[in-house]
Design brief:
The longest helix has 38 residues, at 286-323. The chain has helices spanning 4-19, 39-72, 81-110, 116-119, 128-149, 155-187, 199-229, 234-265, 280-283, 286-323, 329-340, 347-354, 368-374. It has 13 helices and no strands. It is elongated, with a radius of gyration of 28 Å. Helix 5 (128-149) packs antiparallel against helix 6, helix 10 (286-323) packs across helix 11 and helix 12 packs parallel to helix 13 (368-374).
């Protein structure tokens, strides 16, 4: 029940609105005399998050579909417990991100008191997304870094690679955690104590480091793999080409999103209410994109196995023809390797790159070239 004073105020507001050319207030328009942020500022604050949340939820649906395909693949029962725990962990962490995004979407889409104080006020739910995102990125990047590490032949090269990749991975997860800390400081009203550290600086550290790690991992894998196995045979070259294309495709979206977000984080100095949150549109989807990348790689192994089966059938026919020529035992082995398109000593190259059951420093046993390609995707050391 309105008091006479409230009714008079409402009538005055309605009259002023009508005089200014606005429609009169309806029976549910009871929020009167309340400050409202101008449209351009509310768009600048909320639009990056709205875009990021939308992309992230779509990508999360792809994550679930890809995970189900992995569970149904022929490799899942044979994968180690460590590898299964990794994939389940990534899905669970992504689910946590998705729940937080749904909560934020509901809250900000239904909030009516859109003044400066409310729209700039963070809540501790905002801690969840950068922390989980940083952990997921660190995990998936570590898997890909191990895969690339196995291809190096010298201890010096391995040490240099591990040093720079570790710096990038640690910088990335540190940036994401710093973003979470700033969010908490904003909630409790002590954000000024963090200066000169700001949200764009933290997101910039995170995204630049993530882009560096993703691009370095992919470039290392492509260059070293092609260098070690190129020119053996048309079948082997085609297989390597497929692996390289897969590696580039799976790293492309995470690298692209991280790179764009990183550029946006340094594009405006000093940042304003209209620009400070632009990188959020690109770091919010990252955990789902990393998971999509991981499961795309995992599920590709069935396809690669079918490719290898077709290739092996051709190799066996070639080997039979050579054996019928009556070579001695040494000649037979040499001829068989050449006919099958895999030279002597070649097993270590592909086996080291893609088989989790290789020896120390990636030295594979004979035959791991085939097994390595078939188990292509992820390098997680079996228990």
């Amino acid at each position: 029940m309105e008091s006479p004073q409230q009714a008079a105020l409402q009538a005055a507001v309605n009259a002023a609105a009508v005089a200014a050319g606005y429609p009169a207030a309806g029976p549910m328009d009871t929020l009167t005399g309340y400050p409202v942020m101008a449209q351009k500022y509310s768009t600048g604050l909320l639009a990056p998050y709205a875009v990021g949340w939308g992309i992230a939820l779509i990508a999360y649906g792809i994550v679930l579909a890809s995970f189900v395909r992995y569970l149904q693949s022929s490799f899942y029962p044979r994968d180690s417990k460590w590898k299964k725990a990794l994939t389940w962990g990534v899905v669970i962490l992504n689910t946590g991100c998705a729940v937080q995004i749904m909560e934020n979407t509901f809250y900000w889409s239904t909030l009516q008191r859109r003044n400066t104080t409310n729209l700039e006020q963070y809540n501790n739910w905002g801690l969840v997304s950068p922390i989980l995102s940083g952990i997921i990125a660190f995990t998936v990047q570590g898997v890909y870094a191990f895969r690339s590490y196995k291809l190096f032949e010298t201890a010096v090269a391995k040490t240099v690679f591990v040093f720079f990749i570790s710096l990038g991975m640690i910088g990335g997860i540190a940036g994401s955690f710093m973003l979470a800390v700033l969010t908490h400081m904003s909630v409790i009203g002590t954000i000024e104590n963090a200066l000169p550290i700001t949200f764009p600086i933290c997101s910039g550290i995170w995204l630049w480091c993530s882009a560096f790690v993703d691009i370095t991992n992919t470039a290392t894998l492509c260059i070293l793999l092609r260098r070690r196995v190129k020119g053996w045979s048309s079948e082997t070259d085609n297989m390597v080409k497929s692996i390289v294309v897969l590696a580039v495709e799976t790293a492309m979206y995470t690298s692209l999103f991280a790179l764009i977000g990183a550029v946006l984080s340094i594009s405006w100095h000093p940042s304003t209410d209209l620009t400070a949150d632009y990188p959020a549109a690109f770091w919010i989807p990252l955990p789902s994109l990393y998971a999509v990348s991981l499961f795309t790689t995992m599920t590709s192994r069935d396809k690669m196995q079918n490719q290898m089966s077709t290739s092996q059938g051709s190799q066996q026919r070639n080997t039979y023809t050579v054996d019928m020529q009556g070579r001695n035992s040494v000649g037979e082995k040499t001829a068989n390797y050449r006919a099958s398109g895999v030279p002597q000593g070649a097993e270590g190259g592909l086996g080291a790159a893609f088989d989790t059951r290789t020896g120390s420093d990636g030295a594979a046993e004979e035959g791991n070239a085939t097994g390595g390609i078939q188990s292509l995707a992820v390098h997680v050391a079996d228990d």
